[in-house]
Design goal:
Order of helices and strands: EHEHEHHEHHEHHEHEHHEHEEEHEEH
Strand content: 15-25%
Helix content: 25-40%
CATH topology: Inosine-uridine Nucleoside N-ribohydrolase, Chain A
Number of domains: 1
CATH superfamily: Ribonucleoside hydrolase-like
Length: 334
Amino acid sequence: MDAPAIERTRMIIDTDGGVDDAVAIWWAATSPDVELLAVTTVHGNVDLGLATDNVCRVLEAAGAPGVPVAAGYATAIGPTPQIRPATFIHGDDGLGNTYRPKATFGVVDEHAVSMLLRIVAEHPGEVVVVPIGPLSNIGAAIQADPTWAAKVKRLVIMGGAALTQGNALPMGEANIAHDPTAADVVALADWATPPLLVGLDVTHLATFTAAEVALVRGHHTAAGEFLDVPLEFYGRFGGTFCAPEEFPCHDALAVMTAVHPAMVTGPILPLGVQVLPGPALGATVVDRRAPFFARADPGATQTVPDGFGPWEIGLHVDVDAFRAQLHRLFGPPA
């Protein structure tokens, strides 16, 4: 008797084309558990054109040139703060200053927002959307069709923070800070299930250590050969907020969690985004009072101000499971 077929996760990745994005895309493109329907691109780590070129480079090197790539927003949909360019993290080319040749294919003749709307409409309730860059494309999709969010099976974003400081701004994580208006639109949309926030609280714990770096440098796989120099560059400053001699791979954690939900978990809590200028601009504001109120007065409800939506806030991460996936990607066959 044949074994039952494993249900693959149908996924769209929305990305700004940096080093950790490359790891995430390569993992998804080669995972037997993922059906990568498309990759859409957005401004962020690098400009839109470079981000798009990088996605095509990665997909071709990973043996997945058939995955359609659509370019999206080159700028934010709302006002943005001044943020230091991320070239010191990702390199001038977004891939650790490797300056690889362009892929032999390019984008499809469709805007990223149109592609997001179309694919989800064609597969309602079946597609997991994973934004790992600024949320401009996702916010624009919701503005174009407010019912779109309810058709998405699940939204898993890399962005924000609940318990820790920001990285691009005092309280603002880079993906949120690059377009707070879009993040606010996304936070308040009518999602079918509470989206998952994979933020700095967990990405700064799920890190590359010397063991993972050694695997990459061993060039046991094509991923190791391609990503060795980019990750070496990225690791110089990417681990600023992590344990010594470690660095995160924010986007890979989000994409892996979209397929393996137990990897990052947390409570359902109200989440909002600070969009007005001030010390907390770009912050993801999480109302963490509910568990305390419930303990003090079970069944009681408390007033939540306008501007919040229900989200699963990633506070717990299975670091061993994350690193096991890195070993699958970079390590020699078992």
